[in-house]
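Long-time lurker. I teach an intro course on protein structure, and each term I like to show students one example going from raw sequence to a predicted 3D structure in token notation. This year I'd like something fresh instead of my usual example. Would anyone be willing to generate the tokens for the chain below so I can use it in lecture? Attribution to the forum is fine with me.
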Amino acid sequence: MKPGKDYIGVGCGAFILNEEGKVLLQQRNKEPERGYWSIPGGKLEWMETFEDAVKREVKEECDVDIQVEKLLGICDHIVKNENQHWVSPSFLCKITNGEPKIMEPTKHTDMKWFSLNELPEKLTITTQNAVRHYKDYSKQ
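-- Reply from a regular --
Happy to contribute to a lecture. Here you go:
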């Protein structure tokens, strides 16, 4: 049985900003939403906290250590045309050690920093949700 396909999957994502206020995005090379740009993240493992999961996923995908600063929001990540259903919180994070690089080239084809005013057109549902939550948070 596969999470997200046979039952609701649980994931998490890191909304990582640099000193210039740009967000780190990766271009996905696998479903769901292959070819779309996404914040780093992945699925929660058994007996793992969300904070530990997001730190682990970012380390595995980008080879950086992060500090989790705040929960931004929860995303109902439902991709009907791919028959995928996930629930995923996103966290505002900052890098504490390292420079991001692609560590899983079979999963991600590109990685870049983007200005929030110049985001790519093809954003994953979770990334669209995280951007909206961050903009709401930064208005406060």
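Some talking points for your students: The two ends are 42 Å apart (CA to CA). Residues 125-139 form the longest helix (15 residues).
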